[in-house]
Design brief:
The chain is α/β, with parallel strands linked by helices and 249 residues long. Helices cover 31% and strands 17% of the residues. It has an eight-stranded parallel beta sheet with strand order 5-3-2-6-9-10-1-11. Strands 4-8-7 form a three-stranded antiparallel beta sheet, with no helix packed on it. β9, α7 and β10 form a beta-alpha-beta unit. α1 packs across α2 and α7 crosses α8. The structure holds 2-amino-2-deoxy-6-O-phosphono-alpha-D-glucopyranose. 2-amino-2-deoxy-6-O-phosphono-alpha-D-glucopyranose binds next to α5.
Length: 249
């Protein structure tokens, strides 16, 4: 793991540079997308770079991590809607090449991992992290061998995510998520964590044992994973004095 600490803006710029480097080498790269508030700065920066002609997404294919069960793409809290509004509508991507797991016809999820493989596998996967260590919607206890599957969301996750809905009653109880193995197949991974509510879990993800209790801890075993933290999310890790290399941006 490479660990960088900086401001949200510095993180967005440095992470975006990884996309520039990749798309310069491989214009038809396969990108793994994530939702949540964390990647918004990066998406904004990617849209800016695209507008300025620094990168193009015209030959890019994307696969998103997850989707709520029961929400179709027109629902403003569906992850398809999120991706269209926060990224795809602002870049020159062919929407036909963008994939978000199907939260309505659950039969379709059986072919999601195959579709990723057929597209050549994910070159670069962006991840956020839940306060309980979930990546995508892989809640604590999810087997590391898991592929795309349906999950029951933890009440805590529903509560945290209810900030985007009118009330918690509207937050679906289930989601479709790429599994941990699906994520670990990506050639490169970027995980971004921002804010003090992530400080505990960031410290566990990096210093703790690789254990399904903290799904993100598996990333310690990924050969090319870059972690970007703001000062608040890095606070516990920095205070732990652990023997890990941390670079300031
Ligand atoms: C959701 C998503 C995750 C995301 C997490 C953190 O549960 N399924 O992919 O990483 O929220 O969200 P945020 O970035 O808003 O803190």
């Amino acid at each position: 793991m490479k660990i960088y600490v900086g401001s949200e803006e510095q993180i967005a710029k440095k992470a975006a540079q990884q996309y520039v480097d990749l798309l310069t080498k491989k214009p038809n790269a396969v990108l793994g997308g994530a939702t949540g508030s964390t990647p918004l700065g990066l998406y904004h920066e990617l849209a800016r770079l695209n507008k300025e002609g620094v990168i193009t997404f015209k030959d890019v294919t994307t696969f998103n991590l997850d989707e709520y069960v029961g929400l179709d793409g027109s629902h403003d809290q569906s992850y398809r809607y999120f991706m269209n509004h926060n990224l795809f509508d602002h870049i020159d991507i062919d929407k036909e090449r963008t994939h978000v797991p199907d939260g309505i016809n659950l039969e379709n999820i059986k072919t999601y991992d195959k579709a990723i493989e057929k597209a050549g596998g994910i070159d670069l996967q962006i991840l956020g992290i839940g306060v309980d260590g979930h990546i995508a919607f892989n809640e604590p206890g999810t087997p590391f061998e898991s592929l795309t599957h349906v999950v029951e969301l933890e009440e805590n996750t529903r509560e945290v995510n209810s900030r985007f809905f009118k009330s918690i009653d509207e937050v679906p109880h289930q989601a479709v998520t790429m599994g941990i193995k699906s994520i670990m197949h990506a050639r490169s991974i970027i995980l971004i964590a921002l804010g003090d509510n992530k400080a505990d879990v960031v410290e566990k993800m990096i210093n703790g044992p690789v254990d399904t209790a903290v799904a993100a801890s598996i990333l310690q075993l990924h050969p090319d994973c870059t972690v970007y933290l703001d000062e608040k999310a890095a606070a516990k890790l920095l205070a732990s004095g652990a023997d890990v290399e941390i670079e300031r941006i």
